[in-house]
Batch of 3 targets.
Target 1
Amino acid sequence: MKKIFYSVLIILGLSIAHNASAQNQDILAIINSKDYSRLQDALKNADMTESLKEKGPYTFFAPSNLAFDKMAPETTFDELNKPENKEKLRGMISYLILKENLDINKISQLIKAGKGKTNLTTLENGKILVSLEGKKIKLSDERGNHAYILGAGKKASNGTVYEIDQVLLPKKKD
């Protein structure tokens, strides 16, 4: 019985230590993995890496490489990353960032207060509609595209990062 008790204490201690170390990392450090290599490239090409090291607070809806693979042909990752599309790329990335730190509980409270949905304002003053679909949190962009938040998010020193399964895009500019 003592062995089980000490094993649980060790696992709990490691879990707390891991969460505490994640909170000492900024958003850029949180997305520093091979699963986000395309997002990292996009941030570099848009000259936005330093901004995600700033104090914040931010909420970042981070598309994984798989999400970038699902983009429509007219907005492919390679097309967006061309030097002549730098401003479009900056707009796309800014559309994925909120200038507030919303943990999963706060997002749920906002949805409940909005009777099933709420609008969030992005860094580029766009809107993302947030709602529940079953038990999943659904994000809808201004073009009618949808993404789902995968997991409860990762806390960073300057905000929260949520992996999303699709790339959300701002409204087309005329």
Target 2
Amino acid sequence: MSENVDYTKFKLPPALVSRADLARLIREVEAVDADLESQKVKSHDHESQGKLPAISRGLQEFLELNKLDLTNNHVRVSAKEELVKLKDKAPAIHMTFAVPADTEVLQQLVSWTRANAHPQSLLSIGIQPSLIGGAYIRTPNHVHDFSMRSMLENKRDIMLKVLETQQS
């Protein structure tokens, strides 16, 4: 990729689900930057490109998807700045579940969201046991209540009639 990096063009791997995941990615890019700068100082050659330190699978996937080379100082600095912008501006969908969702399910949800809503969608996950089951989903424009609690509340009259007929 060229030295001009644009966050609106970033592709996000499924493992990058939330703003917290994006913040970890930024911290890792900062650590790589610090490590490479340290290598330059130690080698006394400010033009040499250092060896990339060990990086996480998430960062590796991100770099491959976006064809970024972090050994290039300009790309690294630009990518770091653009990732911060992305963290602040990426659309987030708030999902609340009755129980914690496993990582695989969250990755499937974020993949579907990126394919159908916005390619840089992030999820904000919450837990609310009173939902009983299902999910409560909130976007900037809509609220969808797919919880068991909501379903039971909507069917309350039917359940009361069934209970009354069984008691008679």
Target 3
Amino acid sequence: MATIEAQGDQLIAAEQYLAEFPEKAQRALLRAMNRSIASGRTVMVREIARDTGLKSKDVRAALVMREAFANRPEASLAAKLKRLPLIDFRARGPEPSRGKGRGVTYRLQGGKGRVENAFIATMKSEHRGVFKRAGEARLGIVELKGPSLGHVFAKYRPLGLARVQEVFDKNFAHEAGFIQTGAADAE
């Protein structure tokens, strides 16, 4: 989990600088943290989508972002460890197969894959997925899953943290200047 943490020296300097306006300083800190974690998420979504071949909206849905609030002054970004449905990895095959299918092909980071005797179906709930029979004929079916994004998230974590720090420094300086000039009194 990537967490924004203010370093001791930075926090002390910021507190001394904005000691005259403690409530406004806290709001400035929270705003800067939330903007920076959102920028970090954008970088992570772009890089993970490029690496895995997934759609950006699917990657964004698999990331969990917690914003900072006054009672909890920390923001975090993490990847869900839940495995993604195989249909998200550009799965192709007959739909419905009616027992005459050639299986389902899909694309992962390492290349193409194929699952024999699998089929693509849309359930009554309108959930579309890649399924395979569990056991003998006419017993239950199971949905096939691909990998989780947890290991890819870890791969790009330093890049995301660098962006978070860069945006935090810029936004906190802007917010502090905003408070110091007195423009924040208009709020």
